[in-house]
Design goal:
300 residues; alpha+beta; Arc Repressor Mutant, subunit A; Alpha-Beta Plaits; 8-stranded antiparallel beta barrel; two-stranded antiparallel ribbon; 11 helices
Length: 300
């Protein structure tokens, strides 16, 4: 597993790094690295690299957390819904999460009860997890919590880059969105985009997108995904705490709130997680929170 993590680190830091360069950096043969990477994808140990859009004056995504009387019916119906880029069914303070690339009135859907939260999606983050045990991770969490010193609000206004994409750039985004390391030449041939266009798009990618690679030692499908919406002024601390786990947490800004998706392997570890959440609230790291467990999700 340690070699798996070392390979993950290489791809996390450089998403399109070649197998040859990985083999040189981790001290394994290219063939061994190739087999390990295949195994990591097949078992869900590594997910990505995937691409997410940054907000811009020309492009925004909208997050909706809602309660429906029949969430499974809604989940099924949203699979072909226009302008939906992601949706999930959950159990908790909301039953349905939807992300769209256009502002929609989803309260018109059948069985709608209430809107738990609605906001504009900001930047997304996947802090690199540590190669440690869960016990070791919570020890580190406790230490960081003990050293917490409240400071004034750290939220900052960002200068958003304009998005000057044409048809080819959107073709490239859709083609590589969930599998950035797919073979380039056949993909470009399929979507009919020239290599020069791909090269320019890659050069500018980090101006317009964030890149995310996840590590899940037991395989992503073997974890329960806990989702939290934190009303907090301590963005950096929350990101830091959730980077101390052995699994990747996905963190997303929604207006001035933080939405965190974190993967837990067992009820025992989940109890430790909820103890952490209530400690964060007791220490006024957050004013309040909403939470749910993700049951199914669909990426469009």
């Amino acid at each position: 597993m340690e070699k798996y993590y070392e390979i993950f680190e290489q791809i996390y830091e450089s998403p399109t790094i070649s197998l040859h360069d990985i083999s040189t950096n981790v001290g394994l043969s290219r063939n061994t690295v190739s087999e390990y990477v295949k195994e990591m994808y097949a078992t869900g140990i590594m997910v990505g690299p995937q691409i997410r859009m940054k907000p811009s004056p020309d492009y925004k995504e909208y997050v909706y957390l809602m309660d429906f009387s029949d969430p499974f019916q809604v989940f099924t119906g949203l699979k072909e819904f226009p302008h939906v880029v992601y949706h999930a069914m959950a159990l908790g303070d909301w039953t349905t999460m939807v992300i769209t690339d256009r502002l929609l009135d989803l309260s018109q859907l059948v069985g709608f009860h209430n809107m738990v939260y609605q906001g504009v999606r900001g930047y997304s983050y996947t802090p690199k997890p540590e190669y440690i045990t869960w016990d070791e991770s919570f020890t580190k969490v406790d230490k960081e919590m003990a050293e917490f010193a409240p400071e004034p609000s750290e939220h900052k206004d960002r200068q958003l880059n304009s998005l000057d994409w044409g048809e080819d750039e959107w073709k490239l985004f859709r083609a590589f969105k969930y599998k950035m390391r797919k073979t380039v030449t056949p993909t470009l041939k399929k979507i009919k985009v020239r290599y020069e266009g791909y090269s320019k798009w890659m050069e500018d990618l980090k101006d317009n997108c964030t890149v995310h690679t996840g590590f899940y030692p037991e395989g992503f499908q073997n974890y329960m995904s806990y989702c939290f919406l934190f009303y907090t002024e301590y963005e950096s601390l929350v990101k830091s705490l959730f980077s101390l786990f052995p699994t990747t947490s996905f963190i997303m800004e929604v207006d001035s709130q933080l939405m965190v998706f974190t993967s837990m392997p067992s009820s025992e570890v989940a109890r430790e997680l909820f103890c952490l959440i209530y400690s964060m609230k007791a220490e006024s790291i957050m004013k309040r929170f909403n939470q749910a467990v993700a049951l199914f999700y669909c990426q469009h």
